[in-house]
């Protein structure tokens, strides 16, 4: 004689949850930062890293525009590397827990596809903010460099004036570094007999700087 409970006790144990592919997780994180965490049932970190990366891009854009340099753009890259390292650690923890508790496939798809759609919209917004700031930062950096070259050319003219070997016409550029001279298309010296010679430097960029 047997009881219904016996059949339950004798039923085979459910198969272990199949481990998600770590390579696929890394690929998802590359394409959609944070999406790999949803693959291994840690959707909270998916949303967290997505927000962190968006924040880093915004901060980098603001700092780049404020400082006129491209160095702040390293922030999103550093955050991206930190996310991948963190994913590796979380994957190992989840594997030890047999990727429990499970997350329904439908929920995973909604989170990943929703991330794709929102990310597509945000990329457009960030591009509209970031690209003008990058161009402005590049322009300011170039102008700063050209101003330094023009001041060096003026200093050469002052030195030549002290040696009484300068006159109006082409600037004496022999003492400038090659990197400076390569940027200059033409340089004209005026007021060579004055207290401070005047120089007008035209660069290959098309910009002209006149000092003083």
Provide a descriptive summary of the structure in words.
This protein has seven helices and four strands. It is of the alpha+beta class. The chain is rod-shaped, with a radius of gyration of 31 Å. Residues 1-16 have low confidence and may be disordered. It has two domains: 18-141, no CATH class; 147-211. The chain starts with a helix and ends with a strand. A four-stranded antiparallel beta sheet has the order 1-2-3-4, with helices on one face. The protein has helices at residues 4-10, 22-31, 35-39, 43-67, 74-96, 105-162, 178-181, and strands at 169-170, 184-190, 198-203, 208-211.
What labels describe this entry?
membrane; transmembrane; disordered N terminus; 4 strands; 212 residues; 62% helix; four-stranded antiparallel beta sheet; alpha+beta
């Amino acid at each position: 004689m047997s009881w219904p409970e016996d059949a339950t006790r004798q039923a085979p144990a459910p198969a272990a949850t199949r481990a998600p592919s770590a390579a696929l997780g890394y690929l998802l994180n590359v394409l959609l930062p944070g999406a790999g965490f949803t693959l291994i049932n840690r959707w909270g970190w998916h949303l967290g890293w997505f927000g962190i990366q968006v924040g880093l891009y915004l901060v980098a854009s603001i700092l780049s525009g404020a400082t006129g340099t491209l160095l702040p753009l390293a922030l999103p890259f550093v955050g991206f590397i930190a996310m991948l390292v963190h994913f590796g650690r979380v994957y190992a923890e989840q594997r030890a827990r047999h990727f429990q508790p499970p997350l329904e496939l439908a929920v995973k798809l909604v989170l990943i596809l929703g991330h794709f759609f929102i990310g597509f919209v945000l990329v457009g917004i960030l591009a509209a903010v970031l690209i003008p700031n990058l161009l402005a930062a590049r322009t300011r950096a170039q102008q700063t460099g050209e101003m330094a070259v023009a001041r060096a050319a003026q200093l050469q003219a002052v030195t030549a004036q002290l040696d009484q070997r300068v006159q109006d016409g082409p600037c004496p550029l022999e003492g400038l570094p090659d990197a400076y001279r390569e940027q200059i298309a033409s340089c004209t010296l005026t007021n060579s007999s004055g207290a401070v010679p005047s120089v007008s430097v035209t660069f290959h960029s098309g910009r002209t700087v006149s000092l003083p």
